[in-house]
Write a structure and sequence with these properties.
Layout: H1 17-38, H2 46-50, H3 55-68, H4 72-95, H5 99-120, H6 126-136, H7 144-173, H8 176-188, H9 192-206, H10 209-230, H11 241-263, H12 265-271, H13 280-307, H14 310-316, H15 320-324, H16 326-341, H17 353-376, H18 383-393
């Protein structure tokens, strides 16, 4: 069997700017979505949220984010992970190396990073990505049609079936409001011990059922991304414009319809009680999960189609450096946001409502975009990307770009 050294990290010339830019754009959405937890706002009771001076503004922002952002950005991010797996296997086949061993080591390192990160912030996604990444290997030889159906089936069906068990397990651990009050107290404390204890308590309430639910959420999207990578939809988007447009024409209206039904669910059940009985709750759950999945795909495709236009590309390509350093930027977001909102940091907390999310989100991600561009003009990888690759390949990776003459 060829040595692992035959599978080497991508050079800058092998990268796809569109994919990096889309990943950076998705990362901006992930940051905004995570600010509900980072700011401790989601741990307030409804009465406490209504008592904030920003309550009316918060209500409007929450509706907008629920419709346009919730689970959409992480959908794009997850699909790109599966697409990356397809690209890794393709490169391994071209170079005659066993890419699976390298992929397993990559997932092992990511698992370790995720474990460390999750002990500080329970909302970590890296741990789930690593576990779902191991599972993805089992599907690598599936036909394209099976990948699509399996992706939607796991992302929608498996998560919908797990939802009642997830709710029951979390309620059995402790009622939501009582648990949130304890978590809010711990994370608002200036004590590191109290903060870490509250985070650990969040993990105990969420896992293992929540981890399984989120694993299905991620794995279904990985399969769809793996299919897209196999078809080279984003590696060679110009060749696949008709297919990309057809997918958009299906996902956008269906996603909008599913989202509208989800918002109108309570009124519909009240008008037709039979629609809330029997298997209807599971069907409603599938509809509720379908909206973010379909709209996430649609929003990603809108970005792709705009990127293919020269005028838009000049602006959208600025997301690419942040996308190339996604791991570094993702972990940095945790440090900055908890440093601002948690009691162990500045202790801003949730008292400024959703306004504080926007005030932090714009300058923080703008700074990450600027720093990523500056850093990658001087180095091949972001700091955490370098560590990930070094541990994966078992040898120190060169940080400085190789001169063209070399």
């Amino acid at each position: 069997m060829p040595p692992d050294s035959a599978v080497t990290p991508r050079s800058q010339g092998e990268r796809h700017e569109l994919i990096d830019a889309l990943r950076g754009f998705a990362l901006a959405g992930v940051l905004l979505a995570n600010l509900a937890a980072f700011s401790l706002y989601q741990y307030l009771t409804e009465q406490a949220q209504s008592a904030l001076p920003t309550a009316k503004f918060d209500a409007a922002v929450n509706v907008a984010l629920q419709a346009l952002l919730t689970h959409k950005a992480v959908t794009v991010f997850s699909i790109l992970f599966g697409l990356g797996f397809a690209m890794q296997l393709e490169r391994a086949r071209v170079r005659g190396a066993d890419g699976l061993r390298v992929f397993l080591r990559r997932m092992g390192v990511l698992l370790a990073i995720g474990l460390v990160h999750s002990f500080y912030w329970y909302g970590d996604i890296l741990l789930i990505y690593a576990l779902a990444g191991f599972a993805l290997i089992l599907f690598r030889n599936w036909p394209d049609r099976w990948l699509v159906w399996g992706g939607f089936g796991i992302a929608l069906g498996a998560t919908a079936l797990l939802r009642p068990t997830l709710i029951a397990s979390m309620t059995a651990y402790m009622p939501r409001e009582a648990h949130n009050a304890l978590v809010l107290e711990g994370l608002s404390s200036p004590s590191w011990q109290a903060s870490l204890a509250a985070n650990f308590d969040l993990m105990r309430r969420w896992y293992p059922v929540g981890g399984l639910w989120l694993g299905c959420f991620a794995l279904g999207r990985f399969l769809l991304g793996y299919w897209a990578g196999r078809r080279r939809l984003l590696q060679e988007p110009q060749r696949h414009l008709p297919l990309l447009r057809r997918i958009l024409l299906w996902t956008l209206p269906l996603g909008m319809a599913a989202t509208a039904l989800q918002f109108a669910q309570a009124s519909i059940k009240q008008a037709v009680p039979a629609l809330g009985q029997g298997v209807a709750p599971t069907a409603w759950t599938v509809i509720g999960y379908a909206g973010p999945l379909l709209l996430g795909i649609a929003f990603g495709l809108v970005f792709v189609l705009l990127f293919l236009r020269e005028g838009w590309r000049r602006w959208l390509r600025h997301f690419a450096p942040a996308g190339r350093m996604a791991l570094t930027n993702y972990l940095t977001q945790t440090l900055v946001c908890t440093g601002v909102f948690y009691g162990i940091g500045l202790g801003v907390g949730p008292r400024f409502g959703t306004a504080s999310w926007l005030v932090l989100w714009v300058p923080l991600f703008a700074a990450q975009m600027a720093f990523s561009r500056w850093w990658l003009a001087r180095f091949r990888f972001g700091p955490m990307e370098w560590l990930w690759r070094t541990l994966t390949y078992g040898r120190r990776q060169p940080m400085r770009p190789v001169p063209a003459s070399g």
